[in-house]
Structure formats: C-alpha cells, structure tokens
Amino acid sequence: MSEAESTTFHSLVEARYRDGQSVERPLPDHMPPALETVLNHKSYRSFLPNPLPRGTLEALLAAAQSGSTSSMMQTWDVIAIQDPKHKSAVAKLAGDQEFIREAPLFLVFCANLHRLANMSKKYHQPAKALTNMDLFLMACIDASIAGQNTSIAAESLGMGICYVGAVRNNAQEMCELLKLPPGTFGLFGMAIGYGKGAKYSELKPRLPMKEVCHKETWSEEGQDENVASYDESLGTFYFEQLGLGPKNWSEFMAANVASQQQNGRQNVKQALHSQSFELL
Could you tell me how many helices (H) and strands (E) the chain has, helices first? Predict the structure, then answer.
C-alpha cells in the first residue's frame, strides 16, 4: 500500500471509530477501490431529480444476485419501484419519508418462500420444511446479503443509498400494496439515486471494534468502558455536525426499546402469519 493509500485507509478507519483504532495486521500493497467504497459509506436522505443511467437497475440486480445464497435456494426477491405515484404510496406506508419519493429508484427486498412452495407443488412434494423458522431466517439473511451487494454496487457507481426499515411500519398494508403472495414478505427498502448531500459531512462513528469482535468465545469484558467511549465519540460527532448538546447513545437506545410500540412494527409477527409464515 502506498503512503497516500495508507494515509487514506487509516484516516477512514479513524473517522469511522474516532477512538484511535488502528489496523495491526499487514495490509495489501494497495487499497482496493471496493474497500474504500465500503469504508466511505454514508446514508443519503435527499436526492437529486437526475434519472439513473440506462442499465443501472440491471447492474444492481446482477450485483445483488452475485451474493452468497444458502443452499442455492435463492430465497429472496426484490420489488423495483420507479413510478412516482406508486413510489409515493409506498412512501406513505413507510414513515411518509420524502426522500423515498425523491429517489428515482426504490427497492423493497423480500423474503420469498413462495417460489419453493410452487416448485414443491409442481413435483408433488409436501414442502414441510417451509414451515420452519430456519427457512425464514435463511430468506432474511439471503435478502440482506443481496441488499448489501446492491448498496456497494450503487455507491461504486457514484450513487447514494439509504436503507429503509420503515417498510415494516405497516407491514400488512405494504404486502397488499405490493401484491405480495403467501410466503413472501417485505423486509427492508433501499432508496437509490444521486444524493444532494449526506446529512453529515463526516463518517458517523460506530461502536469500538473491540466491542463487537469476540476472540474465540463470547466476552463482555470491557463493555461498560467501550460503550462509554462510544457515547462520548458519538456525542462529539452530533455536536460537531448538528450543534446538538450532549447525546448519550446508550441511554437513548435503552429508551428506544423500552416500549413495545414501534411505529407499527409490533404487528410484524401478525403480518408474517397473514402471509402464511408459520415460523415453527
């Protein structure tokens, strides 16, 4: 890795952690563009009206489908939404967030066991495993891998993205709007387009690496210190970026999970059952 590339790499890592975190292991001779793209990730919640170049959707889908898939089952699908009226209706159910309407492309990644059910019916098989919780988890994992590949591909093309978990705020209504058949479920959305500018000019810090990486076995040693350090670094970030007073991430998270009322997401299990997921 050249001196300039090394400086870029370490500056990105430092920006992501703000705690003096460094990479101890030997690094490649050069910094791969893919790594720089990943480390530079920011969410965009404002988009230019510029249309995406022809072939963009297909390129993103190829990247998504190039991700790993468990047992080659390919238990995910995606709904690509570009029609403004349809996109507005989706946005209304997903927190009524304007950036969803602004983005020229909005994707809803779905768990899909319906295709396996159809194939089982075709070959006169009982499809008993489709009732298992593990198959649903498999579909969620596959869809998440596809989503992250899509994100990296879009960012490598100079676009901005924002994941949208709010597609689950009104889960059953969203399934109906998208005409999802039994055995399918909208897991998360992704707005894609040319960003007007990220909400924050700097990279938003993450928990210390040593807090999330457990060597050989699980350990919570140092958790209080790690979280306290993160409270400080994220609080400083918000003050610098938004001029906000001290914000305690850990206290905010505790308050966030104190109530079962999660903007409608407390009804997700019921919506899954309505979509014929037995989750046994």
Answer: 12, 4
